[in-house]
Write a structure and sequence with these properties.
Elements: H1 3-37, H2 46-55, H3 73-78, H4 83-88, H5 92-102, H6 119-125, H7 130-143, H8 150-153, H9 166-177
Helix pairs in contact: 5-9, 7-9
Length: about 190
């Protein structure tokens, strides 16, 4: 191999390495921008948000079964929510703040998968059974676990949030279900 061939290979190798580094940089930048702007993609007007919450109002009282007494320990503790908890969760912003405090956005985004499914995918999945879904999702939030989303998450379990009251979890479920539904991609 002569001097010119060796010089060409060195230059070409450096050029390819720089292109690869540039591509990795752009991918990192794109992921950062996507995670920061996800919530703004689905902002709604105040009227639309209020209509969505009115549509998702709970109907009646629901009790869980699971123990000899007829009520699971989680449901019994969650049913004892103080009245001020309900009053504090009347606005979407208050619920969003609660979700941020619980770390929900570390694993979920509005319209894309992080670890768990996107909130818009969950809204799509439960779009035909919204009233029943509020309670289902509330108990999943409190108890954690795996289930329907395993093909997308690889079976990674959602952690339990046992310190939440049932009222708080239901408010969070209503917030999720009020997102603009988006069909998930094929797993």
């Amino acid at each position: 191999m002569d001097y010119h061939d060796r010089r060409f290979l060195q230059t070409f190798t450096i050029f390819i390495a720089l292109l690869a580094l540039l591509a990795v940089g752009f991918l990192f930048l794109a992921s950062q921008l996507a995670s920061r702007s996800g919530d703004e993609n689905f902002k709604r007007s105040k009227i639309a948000e209020e209509r969505a919450y009115a549509r998702l109002e709970p109907v009646g009282v629901v009790r869980l079964q699971g123990t000899a007494s007829g009520t699971s320990p989680v449901a019994a503790r969650a049913a004892q929510a103080p009245a001020r908890t309900l009053a504090a969760l009347t606005t979407p912003q208050a619920v969003h703040h609660l979700m941020v405090g619980q770390g929900c956005f570390a694993c979920h985004a509005i319209d894309s998968k992080i670890v768990g499914p996107a909130y818009a995918w969950v809204a799509y999945h439960y779009r035909a059974q919204v009233k029943r879904a509020v309670l289902t999702l509330a108990h999943k939030i409190i108890s954690g676990g795996t289930g329907y989303w395993n093909p997308w998450t690889g079976g990674i379990a959602m952690p339990a949030h046992p310190t939440l009251t049932l009222a708080q979890a239901e408010a969070m479920a209503r917030w999720v279900l009020a997102r603009h539904p988006l069909a998930p991609p094929k797993p």
